[in-house]
Amino acid sequence: MGHPVVLAFAVGGYVFAAIAGLFVLAGDFGPALLVPLWIVHAVLLVLLIRRLGARTSSTYTMLFIVGTSVMSVYVADMARDDLTLQQRGERVTATVVDKWRDAAQGRKARDYNYTLEREDGTKVPGPAMRTLTDLYDVGQRVTVIEDPQGELRPKTPGQADATSEELGSLGFALAAIGAVAWTAWRGSDPARQKADEGAGHDTGNRAYRKFTGARGSGPTQEEQEEQLREALRTYPADRRGYIKVPPEQYPDVSQQRAARIAWELGLRAEASGNRGSWRFAEKVVEEVPLD
């Protein structure tokens, strides 16, 4: 139990760190750097998720995690200016001295722009304040948060509130991490149950065959092969990436036949260092020849 839990926490921590790191980079770099990084992130996720044991759903889980991660970064990036303005901005009372609407550009929305002056007559630094609808008139006084550095547009306290974006970004991030937890649960619990049930069932079969010499008292060869396929799909991999299967659970299946079944599922059978178990992985040191 401990190893899958630790691995799940490690993968979840990686996902959260990737979201945070890509959010930081999104403020300074464009798609030329971010798109390759997202691709690398997706590849690493597939490899990590497959280590959690749920092999058949790793690609779909990766797509879900990457999708929610992208949305988390996108929503957080929408709130970047508001958060920066809240941190370094100053609240002032200003007067609207000029007002205009964006020029028409097809179906693009025409925002309203306002030039603001402080009470001492100096212009509020930064670009003009902007709203989606006509909210203020020339001569009207309004409380805004201004950027002393003049890089960001002044906004009213309500406009600069990024609470909804923060909650949305956090929700997407938690959904991505939740997918990791779900994958770890799906890859570990069913596998242990099948291993325990298979071991108990096989103990009785081995004892019966030992004293009677009978064959066929347990599952047929076809059933054993199907059980082996299910094991290769659901058993978790160890820290070296191997899926270990007890050969005594499949007495009518040869190692060569097991290698062929594994090959059909995209795996290879290890021929050396098995120590009483069959071992399967995507890459092995010495492959069992196929029958």
Question: Could you characterize what this model shows?
Answer:
With 291 residues, the protein is an alpha+beta fold. The chain is 52% helix and 13% strand. It has seven helices and seven strands; from the N terminus they run H-H-H-H-E-E-E-E-H-H-E-H-E-E. The protein has a four-stranded antiparallel β-sheet with strand order 3-2-1-4, covered by helices on one side. Strand 6 and strand 7 (278-281) form a beta hairpin. Helix 1 (2-26) runs antiparallel to helix 5. The longest helix is centred in the middle third of the chain and has 50 residues, at 163-212. Residues 190-216 have low confidence and may be disordered.
Tell me, rounded to a whole number, the average pLDDT. Answer: 82
Number of strands: 7
Q: How many helical elements?
A: 7
- Radius of gyration, in Å, reads 30 Å
Q: How does the overall form come out from the CA principal axes?
A: rod-shaped
- How many angstroms does the end-to-end distance come to? 36 Å
Q: Uncertain segments of ≥5 residues (pLDDT<50)?
A: 190-216
Could you give a short account of the major beta sheet?
A: 4 strands, antiparallel
Spatial ordering of strands, largest sheet: 3-2-1-4
Percentage of residues assigned to helices: 40-55%
Order of helices and strands: HHHHEEEEHHEHEE
Strand content: 5-15%
Q: From the helix content, strand content and strand pairing, which structural class follows?
A: alpha+beta
